[in-house]
Predict the structure.
Amino acid sequence: MAATDKKLIVDMQGIERRYGDEETGVLALAGVDLQIESGEFVAIVGSSGSGKSTLLQILGCLDRATRGRYLLSGKDVLSLSEKEMARARNETLGFVFQSFHLLGDRSALENVRLPLEYRRGSKDHGSPEEVLQRVQLADRSSHRPSQLSGGERQRVAIARALVKKPELLLCDEPTGNLDSENSRQILDLLSGLREDFQTTLILVTHDREVAARADRTLTLFDGRWQQEAK
Ligand SMILES: Nc1ncnc2c1ncn2[C@@H]1O[C@H](COP(=O)(O)OP(=O)(O)O)[C@@H](O)[C@H]1O
Ligand SMILES: [Mg+2]
């Protein structure tokens, strides 16, 4: 890789993920290299079953590669204990999923506040009220998810992901359950938030139009890059 002043937040080499055993198992990732600089917006596309979610789970320290090397902000993830992985998730990462994953019996504001309950220590974080305002839902703060539209639910989920000011925001098909107007709004919001919060953004999608908003797009095919990752 060319010399650069920018910090590499993600540095993966030869990442493999096998589900099951050598003979009958599935090789979901078959040797993936990936370098992402701090502040980049990278889209990962590919058809269903190409390994997108598997890669995102490994990037997010929710799952471990079965082979390869992964440095997250310079830290060797494969050598971390479960506890240290959980801490990395807590301190460095934010997640947004297709199906929102909000708690149905909590209000919008309570959902946004949740990550702070699990955070010990004094690392800088945002105020849940302010983040909810930033996603333009201040007037919905006491609503439950069932009282919100799909686009509004995803905005709550984004606010929840950002309240800890993560270095890296991972989004798995964030617009997959939304119509085109709401998808556009969510993408505008993510782009704007990335500038405000200086967050690195990795977005998985099967929608090329969504991917077109990113700085660069990488395509997975059968667990490998279709074109060379840079
Ligand atoms: N927990 C699992 N156990 C076994 N196979 C899995 C598991 N998760 C994913 N796979 C397989 O790995 C491959 C990649 O899946 P996935 O990463 O979910 O793809 P995508 O998100 O691109 O649709 C698929 O063949 C899928 O069936
Ligand atoms: Mg998937």
